[in-house]
Fold each of these.
Amino acid sequence: MATTKKLVEEARRIHNTTPVVTAALGRLLTAGAIMGATLKNETDLLTINIKGDGEVGGIVVTADNKARVKGYPHNSYVGIPLKANGKLDVSTALGHGELRVIKDIGLKEAVTGTIPLVSGEIAEDLTYYFAKSEQTPSSVALGVLVDRDFSVKQAGGFIIQLMPNAEEELITHLEALLPDLPSVTTMLENSLSPEDIVYKLFPTQKINIHNKIEPTFYCNCSREKMTKALIALGKKELQTIKKEDQKATLNCQFCNEEQTYREEDLEKIIKDL
Ligand code: ZN
């Protein structure tokens, strides 16, 4: 269970997203924060990549086991009419496409799982991903409430996964409870804390909360990494840039941080190659 208002608002500010994109990006960032926190090692990295034929085009989110997440939409400026029920239409904004989860956990090759988008509302798609790719029955709830001034009013979510030895009684309880459970943002609006929501989900269980971390929007980009990206263009391309533009400006997709290389910087990089 996570509340992610602060980090989703930060993402909205960085990417200047319209409400439907704020909701889509915020839901995926929230899922990333929760899934990231389940990674074992500090160096493990989780990436969730959605590609769709809707106006947003896609969203990329990465997370580590400290629930530090970053993400960006392909297109921040999408205006789509609200659904008949007054909700933001994330499903139409994303369209048809696929969702891929990539876990880089220090193995020779990253572990990946890909599913077609089944609803485009993200929570349902992740539920399907867990069932299909990880063979884990799950319930995923994600929500972002956008305020009148377009800032993030509430954001959060939970992922419930059944252990192989889960009692039948517990499963029956969840199956009865979940369809009637208010949305995460409604519960947060009613001042319920993440702990309150967990207790509400499992009223008869003895709950041990043994790991509390604050999810944050965090980007680890640096000039050094940007320089590497520049070097990857190759000597010839760099010489052309130097001749034609006399400078190069690189932009981090995740946090919009900019790095500028002046003519003499480019000269030095070319010389070192
Ligand atoms: Zn960055």
Amino acid sequence: MKIQISKQKNENYTIIIGCGRLGANLANTLSDNGEDVLIIDKNKEAFRKLSPAFGGLTLNGDATDLDILLEAQINNATTVIAVTNNDNANILVAQIAREIFHIERVIARLYDPEREYVYHEFGIDTICPAILSVKEIDKILSRPDMLKDRLQEAES
Ligand code: AMP
């Protein structure tokens, strides 16, 4: 199957790898913002997490397979975001995007914060849920009123 990307020159085209909770939410948000987005997952059922209004493309396959990335037209992508639940898959795809296809922005989720240096060596931005959570908890602990505000927000 040939993927049809409606990308015009200079427009953003984002490829998201992994349609889990994070990937699906991100894809829905970008699609709502009118961006061209394609999301890849090796499990077809994962696409059920996308909202009915999702206007992007889905591609079923293993993103560590170069043929899948080529089918996704990675050469046209401006941003690649690797958010599978597998750090090795994320680092591999991020490196391919950066080193072979010279993608401008490459972001990868990383469960193991100790591997962050590997990504930075390759110019890959990382988000690490463990570090983000620690920072957020630390912020709440240092400002008890923030917790109260958040609870009130959640209740309303
Ligand atoms: P979550 O843990 O909820 O963020 O989900 C991660 C998603 O990544 C799952 O839907 C997996 O099927 C998907 N996934 C894991 N490895 C790969 C891979 N190599 N290629 C494509 N999707 C993957």
